[in-house]
Each structure stands twice: as structure tokens, then as C-alpha cells.
Amino acid sequence: MNVVLLYGGRSGEHEISIISCTSVARNISDKHNVHLISIDKDGKWYLEDDSLLDEIKKNKDAKLSIHPDDAKRVSIIPGGGKDGAFVCGGKAIPCDVAFPVLHGTYGEDGTIQGLFEMADIPFVGCGVLSSSSTMDKDTTKILWKNAGLPVVPSICITRADVNDSKRYDEKIKKAIDTLHFPLFVKPCAAGSSDGASKAENEKELSYALMEAFEWDNKVLIEKAIPAREVECSVMGNSITFDSANEDTLIKSYGPGEIVPRHTFYDYDAKYNDPDGADLVIPAKLDQDKLSYIKETAKKAYMAVGASGLSRVDFFIDRETGDIYLNEINTMPGFTSISMFPKLCGSEGIDFTSLTEILFNEATAQYQASQKLRTSRTN
Prior knowledge:
Layout: E1 2-8, H1 14-27, E2 33-39, E3 45-47, H2 50-58, E4 74-76, E5 86-88, E6 91-93, E7 97-100, H3 111-119, H4 128-135, H5 137-146, E8 154-158, H6 159-163, H7 165-179, E9 183-187, E10 197-199, H8 202-212, E11 218-223, E12 227-237, E13 251-260, H9 267-272, E14 277-280, H10 287-303, E15 307-317, E16 323-329, H11 339-346, H12 351-370
Parallel strand pairs: 1-2, 1-7
Antiparallel strand pairs: 2-3, 4-5, 5-6, 8-11, 9-10, 9-11, 12-13, 12-15, 13-14, 15-16
């Protein structure tokens, strides 16, 4: 199988994508022919030399990188299909399945998924609608609430609200009066806790909102739950799963608990500080709660029409024991300390087997889409 891995990208999570893709590249079975496409911070695509993959395989300390070279620029052709969608230097890069190991903007927000669908190639992960809707935390909450699932109370503030001082003041007052301090403030569509902070009073809330609006034009103010943070890995296809194909069935793994050593599970704790958090797998919960969380993770996954893979995150209120859905990440981290592969590994799925499942599901999803009519005359 010809596998194309994409990494980097125009995102605040550019560096994390590189680390994640390094792990993926290192663990893909040697039976596959792997091509690496790097994307710089300006959005330019480059075909990397095979020697880079060889170095990753041989040296456990090596890391993927981006080598800008106009002679190696990659183009993508709509309708090109497996044998002609990706082109470099006038030559096609064969692609039986693309794996966009891209986090955040232009990676898991539906944009590149739409590009792949236009190019007519199979790809790992959620489709356009589920990717774009889950990238927006407010939209995700709306979908989950509609499905009867528990979410953290919140209020959404937009740039338009900021531009209307009266409306903005009314929303801030409502947030303070109904949610009460402390409050969490986070951009609706940023990842890795970029722009997220906790506010204990009105002054801190003002600063937190300014920071969040640096990252997005929609911002959530959430009730700060004194929470334990628990996560589940989920794989499968919500729309076209088939009992005859094990790799398409919806399955959840875990849950595991994150015990942060920082104020909350922020960017540094996730990626920079190896001692930023303890990962406890399985979470220290009774069997009923473990089962409930695993089943709710699958329901949350299906409610947004997810496919391929996702990590579903929960809060458990330390005071009441209530369980809330926090968010869903449709392209979770694959770093050495990331929860998604660790949760799958805890149930016997090693990293190489994990990539095989994802490739098989992507292929099945593509085949199902090819059976649909696109014209009255076909």
C-alpha cells in the first residue's frame, strides 16, 4: 500500500504535528511504501526525500523536519485519484491512503478533508462535516446537547458581540451571574489549549478574553468544574460501519485519567514538560463509571458523525461526581506521551496495529463513498 503522510501545516500546533507524525512514520509497517509531504507555516507543500524516513526508522531520537525546496513543491489535482492526485516535478506520487497527521487549523477543521474528497483519494480520519463541526467547541456542544449528552454549561461570545459594547456587556454579566467565578475562557476553534486560561475575577476575565480573541473570533466562557480529567480513544465509522469489517465498528478504549501538575492541563503540560501530568490507565473509577464513560464516548463520537479516530474528553466533578463531556479531538496527538495511542495500547493494540486499523477503515470509508451516485445519468 502507498501511504502518504502529511505533517506541519498552518496551525498553532505545527510543531506538535511534526512530533506526532514522527511517531506515526516510525511505527508504520515496513510492508507499506511511505511518502512524506511536509507543509510549512505558509501552507506550502514539499515532497521529502526517502532518506528522511530512513533516518526516523534508524534513529529513535531523530525527528521529521521541513526542507523548503521549490523543485520539491507538491501540487494536488482535483479528481486525480490514487495515481494522480499528488504531483511533484511533473511526476505523480501514488497514494492508496493519505494520513493527514495535522492538528488544528487547516488540519482537522474540514479544509484538507474537503481537498482530499475533491482529489478523490482515501484518507484517515473524519470527513468534512464532522471535522468542521467538532473543530468548533460551541457547535460540538450544540450537537451533543441535541443528542441528550451532558456538557459543561457555557456562553459563547463572538467578535460581533465585542463590536457591540452593549451586547458584549450583557453577555459578560450573564456569564458571571449564571456560571460564577472561577471561569474557563477558551477559543472555540483552537487546539492544544492555545489561548485558554482560567479567570478568578472580572479583571482576569477581561485579560483572558483578550488572549482568547487573539486565536479565534468565537470564544467560550465555561463554568470551571473542579474536575478530574478523563479521556477515551474511539475508532470506527459512525456512518458506514459494517459488521463484516471489524475495523469499521465503533469501539472505545480506556478511559484514562490525566492528573496535571500544572494549574490545568495546558500546552506546556501536554507537550513540553514530560512531568507535566501523570497518565493513569485505566482511570481509578468503579466499574459502572468506567462502563458509562466508554459508552458515552461512543455516543458522543456518533452524535457528530465521526469516523477514523478521535479522543473524547470528559470532566468528572470532584464534589458531585457528575460526568460531563468536555470536547472531542478528531486528530489527537501521537507523541510519545499522548493519551490516544496509550489508551489503545492498554487494550492490546500496539502502534503498528493501530495504523493498520486506521488505513483499513479509511479504505472501507472510501469504498462506501464510491458506491453513491453523483449524477442522475451514472
